[in-house]
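Q: Could you fold this chain for me?
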Amino acid sequence: MSETWCKCSLFVLVMAFGTGVKAQTATIPIKPGLWQTQISGTSSMTLPADQEARIAALPAAQQAMIRSRMGGAPTTTTTRSCAMGQTSLNEIMSQAEKNTKCTFTNQVQTADGASFDASCVSPQGTTSGHAEFHMVDSEHFTGSLHMTADATSPNGGSMHMKVDNTVTSKYLGADCGTVKPGAAEVVHP
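A: Sure. Below is the predicted structure, expressed as structure tokens.
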């Protein structure tokens, strides 16, 4: 289940990398080509008391395995994505709103950065959060993402997850190689 929410936070980060915010200021151009993004942070999951009790009744080795998958320890994931053609944050945000079940609010854009709140709905539950990004120069950006998620599993169990990430991204060059436009490929989990 945490993998689903990890993918959701990766999605928001990919969208945020190119996230356009509808503001009156000039758009922030995204250089076309291959970008590498490192996402570092923590996630933690809480379960209802009845599910916690079931875990506590398991042998110690099984408890440890389950709890290791519930987050808490810092993680780092590196992805590569391809930005095609000269585009702007505004154009990508508009496209993201059309193609997802996410809404973006509290959008603020400056000459070198952007921030927004995102709220996404999926069959598994809801995710909401806040993201901020800063273009250091035309080939680097940094940012942060803070999200919470509430989900229900197919068997009716529920969970709450919290994700706090920092992001650094750098331009690798004009050739995207095998990375398809609009997709993010995990380089290092």
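A (continued): The beta strands are 29-30, 33-46, 75-83, 87-88, 102-110, 113-122, 125-137, 140-152, 158-173, 184-188.
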